[in-house]
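Appendix B, example 12.
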Amino acid sequence: MRTTIRIDEQLLKQAKQTAVRRGTSLTAIIEDALRESLARQPSVGPRKPASLVTFDGNGLLPGVDLDDSAAVLDVMESAPNDAH
């Protein structure tokens, strides 16, 4: 599966160097690191379903594609701050 993520520039540089040193791909380095991190997580039992608060509104802005996280982030960053 293909996805887009944001990674700290220095961390990405280290990951690329590690991939070259090990003779593998950057994808393999990231997958291995993610697997190791997830394996260290303690297992938890079943959780209660979360209750989500919803608000009235006008729905999505025209042209916003929720499947394109970079585009959503651009819209969020360019929107005026209404949280006063």
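Helices lie at 9-22, 26-39, 69-78. The mean pLDDT is 87.
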